[in-house]
From TrEMBL:
Tagged with keyword Cell membrane: no
Biased composition (Polar residues): 525-538
Domain of life the protein comes from: Eukaryota
Cofactor: Mg(2+); Mn(2+)
Protein name per the record: DNA polymerase eta
Record has Transferase as a keyword: yes
Positions of the UniProt region annotated as Disordered: 525-609, 637-667
GO molecular function terms attached to this record: damaged DNA binding; DNA-directed DNA polymerase activity; metal ion binding
Annotated organism of origin: Eutrema salsugineum
UniProt domain UmuC: residue ranges: 14-254
Compartment(s) of residence: Nucleus
InterPro entries: DNA/RNA_pol_sf, DNA_pol_Y-fam_lit_finger_sf, DNA_pol_Y-fam_little_finger, DNA_polymerase_eta, Rev_trsase/Diguanyl_cyclase, UmuC
UniProt xrefs under SUPFAM superfamilies: DNA/RNA polymerases, Lesion bypass DNA polymerase (Y-family), little finger domain
Reactions catalysed according to its record: DNA(n) + a 2'-deoxyribonucleoside 5'-triphosphate = DNA(n+1) + diphosphate
């Protein structure tokens, strides 16, 4: 079958860099006396010596595997050194490893477009660097090739018996008659070898790398020769590589799709897919997945390296295996509080350091029921828009849990039946930069289309409101819907719930598309375009008699501002009475518990009336919902001098006044 490849991706040079036994290396850097010894990092719990999560290559030689408990590892390798993961809030604290990963990223990022793919993995697009090298100092013109580059594994490289390995590599790298694609790869070999040496020198960590023309092939190659080595995939070797690659070894084929390929199409390797036409694959798996399968069988992947050095999401999780499974709501709440606290801490530092905010909170759990007649029933994951502040995250996480539990146990919940929770995690996703300068508040609110309030009785209510648009001032009706996102595209196949054991490794770095898989089976309060009717409140078995909620008595700032359209406001008004425009109807901040129909009516009125309220009346707790930067902006409005200044500065483009963001209606 002819191999068709898009010309554009042919000439790219992509590297996948993967740290070797990463947590072990981090611990060995802390305790250099452990270097060279069989070592493993274990989870802190004491059951059978804890669970191994990272194993050094010396220990692997003795038969120690990550799936083992500490006691088993000691039996297999009596001299093994077991190092415990640092603990905080009763759970593994991965901050040291995250920072160590960042050290590596900061070095690699200097070489080209860099995508942090997990705590210890990075993709690099080295095309520009390779092209420059090819133009300025091609490998064949170099006096010597670095030793590290000469140790590279080049897939499909022809060698005669007795050839010197390094000499063969040198010949391949310096071939004058090679086509441009291989010449660029040769440059990639030299660049990546230098980068790996740099990482080792500056961080003391060794890493392995795959170098190819796309991400998929680079990732496959990086794991082929470990530790501290690099592997190259020239085009000529792609077919051979894929024809021997078991389907399940391919990142996206590890689940149901891979199983279906094996059982329904009877194939064993990725290369076996070549026997099926694109149409046939589409018939079986839908248009997108069919085309995707057709492409990967040929080593084609158009996925770009994303220039992203920061995580796409943050998460905090914990497993409760065997007898430690949680069986009471108070226990679950205790752990959710711990997890939420950790998550909030990371959200705060992301906000502080990177000026980024997350907008979706998701709860995942794994569970089983005492009399499980439906053993395949998964504990549903739940999401809602994220509110900043530890207590709010804690509250929302617990309410999401209760809503999920109710769904899991069924509406009529058999009283005899009990549940056990074996894993919990909370994650924050849809992270965006806070736009700096003008209209930052507007953009912040734009990013949040719905405002949830999770009630403590386990039900979830969502006020569906109009989000203001800074650009258009248009509004959309929002609705609650259950989404079942699936990596496996239009196959209808579902993606399994996250492996909570591994979640803590990757959750903060999960690419968005993969995150959407994690959110599979979630009740995700996403938005959907609809008519322009204003606010609508949808109830799902909601009770509003929660004392705590009544006490709060204040609508959220997000609730309020999302109902307004951005229009210019006079500076005069702001200066004189320290007010911001607002609906007079809505001026009473303590009317949160209004009925849905009242809310509808109110919003209609708000949109017709100029709004006005005193900024000083805003409750402190409402401020707490906002990112620190935006809080600062609001606070500045309470200082008259500052307001005057802000008003003046508007003219010179450096607006920082609330008046600038939420002006009165332009009539
Ligand atoms: N990790 C974890 N739990 C898992 C898997 C991994 O906590 N179930 C952590 C420990 C690892 C780190 O993530 O050190 C990176 O995971 P890798 O899968 O990349 O494995 P290692 O880096 O440990 O080893 P290798 O050299 O095989 O990549």
């Amino acid at each position: 079958m002819p191999v068709a490849r898009p010309e554009t991706s042919d000439a790219r040079v992509i590297a996948h860099v993967d740290m070797d036994c990463f947590y072990v290396q981090v611990e060995q850097r802390k305790q250099p006396e452990l270097r060279g010894l069989p070592t493993a990092v274990v989870q802190y719990n004491e059951w059978q010596g804890g669970g191994l999560i990272a194993v050094s290559y010396e220990a692997r030689k003795c038969g120690v595997k990550r799936s083992m408990r500490g006691d088993e590892a000691k039996a297999a390798c009596p001299e093994i050194q077991l190092v415990q993961v640092p603990v905080a809030r009763g759970k593994a604290d991965l901050n040291t490893y995250r920072s160590a990963g960042s050290e590596v990223v900061s070095i690699l990022a200097l070489s080209g477009k860099c995508e942090r793919a997990s705590i210890d993995e990075v993709y690099l697009d080295l095309t520009d660097a390779a092209e420059s090298m090819l133009a300025d100092a091609p490998p064949e013109s170099l006096e010597s090739i670095d030793e590290e580059a000469l140790k590279s594994h080049i897939l499909g490289m022809r060698r005669e018996d007795g050839d010197d390995f390094k000499e063969s590599v040198r010949d391949w790298i310096c071939r004058k008659d090679a086509d441009r694609r291989d010449k660029l790869l040769a440059c990639g070999i030299i660049i990546v070898a230098a980068l790996r040496k740099q990482v080792l020198k500056e961080t003391e960590f060794s890493c392995s790398a795959g170098i190819a023309h796309n991400k998929m092939l680079a990732k496959l190659a990086s794991g082929m020769n470990k530790p501290a080595q690099q592997t190259v995939v020239p085009y000529s070797a792609v077919q051979e590589l894929l024809s021997s690659l078991p389907v399940k070894k391919m990142k996206q084929l590890g689940g149901k799709l891979g199983t279906s390929l094996q059982t329904d199409l009877g194939i064993d390797t990725v290369g076996d897919l070549l026997q099926f036409s694109e149409t046939k694959l589409q018939e079986h798996y839908g248009i997108n997945t069919g085309t995707w399968l057709w492409n990967i069988a040929r080593g084609i992947s158009g996925e770009e390296v994303q220039g992203r050095l920061l995580p796409k999401s943050h998460g905090s999780g914990k497993t409760f295996p065997g007898p430690r499974a949680l069986k009471s709501l108070s226990n679950v709440q205790h752990w959710l509080n711990q997890l939420s606290e950790e998550l909030s801490e990371r959200l705060s530092s992301d906000l502080e350091q990177n000026k980024r905010i997350a907008s979706t909170l998701t709860l995942h759990a794994s569970a089983f029921r005492s009399r499980d007649s439906d053993s395949h029933k998964k504990f549903p994951s739940k999401s809602c828009p994220l509110r900043y502040g530890v207590t709010k995250v804690q509250e929302d996480a617990f309410n999401l849990f209760q809503a999920a539990l109710r769904e899991y146990m069924g509406p009529f919940g058999n009283k005899q039946e009990t549940w056990r929770i074996t894993g919990l995690s909370v994650s924050a996703s849809k992270i965006v930069d806070i736009p700096s300068g003008t209209s930052s508040i507007m953009r912040y609110f734009q990013s949040q289309s719905t405002v949830p309030s999770c009630s403590a009785d386990g039900c979830v209510q969502e006020h569906i409101v109009n989000a203001p648009s800074a650009s258009e001032g248009c509004s959309e009706q929002r609705s609650v819907e259950t989404q079942a996102a699936s990596l496996e595209g239009d196959t209808g196949a579902t993606y399994t719930l996250p492996d909570l054991d591994n979640l803590h490794k990757n959750i903060d770095l999960i690419p968005e598309k993969d995150m959407s898989c994690l959110l599979n089976e979630t009740t995700d309060f996403q938005t959907q375009s609809g008519s322009n009717k204003g606010t609508q409140t949808k109830r799902i078995g909601r009770k509003t008699n929660n004392a705590k909620e009544k006490n709060q008595g204040m609508p959220s700032i997000v609730d309020i501002f999302k109902n307004y359209t951005a229009t210019p406001q006079s500076k005069q008004e702001t200066r004189e009475d320290s007010t911001v425009s607002s609906t007079s109807k809505r001026a009473n901040f303590s009317s949160r518990s209004s009925h849905s129909s009242e809310v509808n009516q109110e919003v209609e009125e708000r949109r017709e009336t100029e709004w006005s309220y005193k900024i000083g009346e805003i409750d402190q707790s409402v401020f707490d919902e906002l990112p620190a930067e935006i809080q600062r902006e609001f606070r500045s409005l309470l200082r008259p001098n500052k307001q005057l200044k802000a008003g003046k500065s508007k003219g010179d483009g450096s607006a920082s006044s609330i008046a600038h963001y939420f002006p009165p209606l332009n009539r």
